[in-house]
């Protein structure tokens, strides 16, 4: 039994966290082609418990090291699965990824599931309707942005943050919260709005891991390397788009190798509703999901997997528990007690649908330190 009594949100010195990041949609592959999931699903190990396991293992041969696909993966590690795809022989419309985590000696740590991923045949080229909200992107949701030259997989670079600065990384991607702004206010106030994001909207990108933020941007639809200035339809998954700096003279968010710079687009004399971009200014946008599992084992080496780990779907609390009592303890009752509902947790365990897609993650060096605070 790996359960530990604690107050909600309380951190324990031996906490171990498994964080899975992945895209909301996956494009199906047809025939012999392999459309690898982009961005690739990533796994992060964080929390002091992994380090305690490492220190414990240094004095006990029977306490192994955690690994993400290889025995040399550090105890606080990162890995990504770059070669996953779904073929047209698979008829499912949704699926989950399954991560199996092992110690270096083969002992199983546990099995962890991603959130549901929607399968699409190709990015929608039609004008997106808000009736199909599965493919729309809402304010406050998380997205990833990547740039790919001439549809070449090897040229893919992801917008990321490193050392407090925005970069275009070929190794790691970051999730950004995409907020819709109210254009009636000035930049310093920048109040946020709810709703689905349309082209022509003023938005702000905030890195979920570091909190680093770009200035307000106007999101534009891209068609044949032109930014379309008069399009206001909803944004859809895997659309090509550009980000114009609000109030600037045609300046757009652009990459140059690993640097993120500003690029000045060229006006079109015959078509005032278009501006010509370069390759580095054209980004593909996709929604992302994050699922986090945290558990805490005793310092004694556990022989059984920690999974299935319950996921809290809802938290209903009638009143704050008395000082010194844990959440979930029965509330006091008496003649003067008003009928408060008993605090309780509703938890459900995410299970895969259909045959699991088990992946082996490959570790990459230098994970962002902000994810391992």
Tell me about this structure:
GO terms for molecular function: DNA-binding transcription activator activity, RNA polymerase II-specific; RNA polymerase II cis-regulatory region sequence-specific DNA binding. Residues 364-373 have a biased composition (Pro residues). Keywords: DNA-binding, Nucleus, Transcription, Transcription regulation. One of its GO terms (cellular component) is nucleus. This is Recombination signal binding protein for immunoglobulin kappa J region like. With 373 residues, the protein is mainly β. The chain has two domains: 15-119 and 289-314 and 341-372, Immunoglobulin-like, CATH 2.60.40.1450; 126-287, Trefoil (Acidic Fibroblast Growth Factor, subunit A) (Trefoil). It is built from one helix and 27 strands. It has one helix at residues 48-59; strands spanning 15-23, 25-27, 42-46, 66-67, 78-80, 94-95, 97-103, 108-113, 117-120, 141-147, 157-162, 165-169, 176-181, 192-193, 202-207, 217-223, 226-228, 239-245, 251-256, 259-264, 266-267, 274-276, 283-296, 311-316, 344-348, 357-359, 362-363. A six-stranded antiparallel barrel has the order 10-13-15-16-18-23. Strands 4, 7, 8 and 26 form a four-stranded mixed sheet that branches. It has a three-stranded mixed sheet with strand order 2-9-6, with no helix packed on it. Strand 16 and strand 17 (226-228) form a beta hairpin. It is globular. The two termini are 28 Å apart. Residues 1-5, 69-76 and 326-373 have low confidence and may be disordered.
């Amino acid at each position: 039994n790996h359960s530990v009594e604690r107050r909600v949100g309380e951190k324990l010195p031996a906490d171990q966290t498994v964080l899975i990041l992945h895209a909301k949609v996956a494009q199906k592959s047809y025939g012999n082609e392999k459309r690898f999931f982009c961005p690739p699903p990533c796994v992060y190990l964080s929390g002091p418990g992994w380090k305690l396991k490492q220190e414990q293992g240094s004095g006990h041969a029977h306490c192994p090291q955690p690994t993400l696909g290889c025995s040399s993966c550090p105890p606080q590690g990162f890995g990504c699965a770059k070669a996953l795809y779904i073929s047209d022989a698979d008829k499912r419309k949704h699926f989950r990824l399954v991560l199996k985590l092992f110690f270096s000696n083969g002992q199983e740590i546990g099995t962890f599931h991603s959130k549901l991923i929607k399968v699409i045949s190709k990015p929608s080229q039609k004008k997106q309707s808000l009736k199909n909200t599965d493919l729309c992107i809402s304010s406050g949701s998380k997205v990833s942005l990547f740039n790919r030259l001439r549809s070449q997989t090897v040229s893919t670079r992801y917008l990321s943050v490193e050392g407090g600065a925005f970069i275009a990384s070929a190794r790691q991607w970051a999730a950004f919260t995409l907020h819709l702004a109210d254009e009636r206010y000035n930049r310093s106030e920048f109040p946020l709005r709810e709703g689905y994001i349309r082209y022509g909207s003023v938005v702000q990108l905030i890195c979920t891991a570091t909190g680093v933020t770009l200035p307000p941007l106007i999101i534009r639809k891209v068609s044949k390397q032109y930014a379309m200035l008069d399009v206001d339809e909803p944004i859809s998954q895997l659309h090509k788009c550009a980000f114009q700096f609000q109030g600037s003279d045609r300046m757009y968010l652009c990459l140059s190798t690993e640097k993120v710079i500003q690029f000045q687009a060229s006006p079109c004399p015959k078509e005032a509703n278009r501006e010509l971009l370069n390759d580095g200014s054209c980004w593909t946008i996709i929604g992302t999901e994050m699922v986090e599992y945290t558990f805490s084992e005793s310092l004694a080496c556990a022989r059984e997997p920690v999974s299935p780990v319950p996921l809290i779907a809802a938290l209903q609390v009638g009143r704050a528990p008395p000082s010194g009592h844990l959440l979930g303890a029965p509330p006091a009752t008496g003649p003067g007690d008003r009928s408060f509902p008993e605090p309780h947790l509703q938890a459900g365990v995410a299970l895969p649908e259909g045959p699991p897609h088990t992946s082996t993650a490959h570790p990459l060096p230098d994970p962002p330190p902000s994810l391992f605070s």
